[in-house]
Specification:
alpha/beta; pyridoxal phosphate; Cystathionine gamma-lyase; lyase; 12 strands; pyridoxal phosphate binding; 375 residues; Aspartate Aminotransferase, domain 1; Aspartate Aminotransferase, domain 2; 11 helices; globular
Length: 375
């Protein structure tokens, strides 16, 4: 299979068996039959589950279609992030985190520092991580960054980190494996929240980490077992079912996000407009070089003049849910500063484009902007 649209439909499916479903239903089991000294792939529900196995195989085929990869699924994206960081870092090690990434990273930083890990930070743009690589054990990259949508050069940073003996992990949540393949670009780990675009329906909490290194996968898997951060079988089955439409969703959302960004560029009240697919975006040239054509993600970010203006805009939308996730089939938007964890203006909007017709969505956004300005 060479096309992503075909791959997502077939990924992780078992060999066809007469009178059996193409995707077996979820297996609910805390324990499995183990007669005598028998061992096997499934012994206890905290260690492994047939439903996880199929999902992990499917994600591995998407993250690394040309080479074998090991994928470990988790109960949430944060569980996957924590597993990679805490399975690889020890007291005295140094790690580099983005200072403009996911809003829970500062909490992760505090926890790492309490365990004696040195945490360095750098912005995503301009490959600023290069200046703080020396002596680090692990470089954590988030590209495109959330919520600012800056982009860094994965290949360049991975080569520089490996030359200094550091591992590289990339948060691939926003791009998805159909928009960007960090392992192909030299990363040791591709990590993501499956809660968002990967599953796309806003009804599952899930995460995963993929790597081509079996020893690294074993370390992450042992961390999952130790802390019990396991995905539920129903969530895993729903996630696998949702993968079949990933290519369709990514294509529609990326096209809609670019169309919305182009429309927003003409609005005088908007500042700081970002979307990697916009030719005018500061990250566009690099995004084109390392992301898949036409798959620059569903997220558009921009700022309105102040908090009240942003709140009026959000209240006037009719086709958009005010919610704090992204990547879903229904468009969502929120004023990010309400959480206090991102260095953004009070009027900053993170807008996630769903699969609605772009013309309908843009008309709704323009009408809401007009209403917010007149009030």
């Amino acid at each position: 299979m060479t096309d992503d649209g075909t791959r997502v439909v077939r990924s992780g499916l078992p060999e066809p068996a007469a009178h059996e479903p193409s995707l077996p239903g979820p297996v609910f089991a805390a324990h499995f039959h183990l007669p005598g000294d028998a061992t096997g792939p499934y012994t206890y529900g905290r260690d492994a589950n047939p439903t996880w196995s199929l999902l992990e195989q499917a994600i591995g085929e998407l993250e690394s279609p040309e080479q074998p990869a090991h994928t470990v699924a988790f109960a949430s994206g944060m569980a996957a992030i924590a597993a990679v960081l805490f399975s690889q870092l020890r007291s005295g090690d140094a790690v580099i985190l983005p200072n403009d990434g996911y809003q829970l990273l500062p909490a992760v930083r505090s926890r790492l520092e309490s365990y004696g890990v040195e945490v360095r930070t750098a912005p995503t743009a301009h490959d600023a991580q290069l200046d703080v690589l020396e002596g680090a054990r692990l470089l954590w990259i988030e590209t495109p960054s959330n919520p600012g949508l800056d982009v860094c050069d994965i290949r360049r940073l991975a080569d520089a980190a490996h030359a200094r003996g550091a591992l590289v992990a990339v948060d691939n949540t926003l791009a998805t494996p159909l928009g960007q393949r960090p392992l192909d670009l030299g990363a040791d780990f591709s990590v993501a929240s499956g809660t968002k675009a990967l599953t796309g329906h806003g009804d599952i909490l899930l995460g995963y980490a993929s790597t081509r290194d079996a020893a690294l996968a074993d370390g992450v898997r042992l961390w999952r077992k130790t802390v019990g951060a396991i995905p539920g079988p129903m969530e895993s089955w729903l996630a696998h079912r949702s993968l079949a439409t990933l290519a369709l969703r990514v294509r529609q959302q990326s096209a809609g996000a670019l169309a919305l960004a182009e429309a927003l560029a003409a609005r005088p009240e908007i500042t700081g407009l970002r979307h990697p697919g916009l030719p005018s975006d500061p990250a566009h040239r690099l995004a084109v070089a390392q992301m898949r054509p036409g798959r620059f993600g569903s997220v558009v970010s921009f700022a309105l003049p102040d908090k009240d203006h942003a709140e009026r805009f959000l209240a006037a939308l009719t086709l958009v849910d005010e919610a704090t996730s992204f990547g879903g089939v229904r468009s969502t938007a929120e004023r990010r500063a309400r959480w206090g964890g991102d260095a953004v203006p009070e009027g900053f909007i993170r807008f996630s484009v769903g699969i609605e017709d772009p013309e309908d969505l843009i008309a709704d956004v323009m009408r809401a902007l007009d209403a917010a300005r007149r009030t």
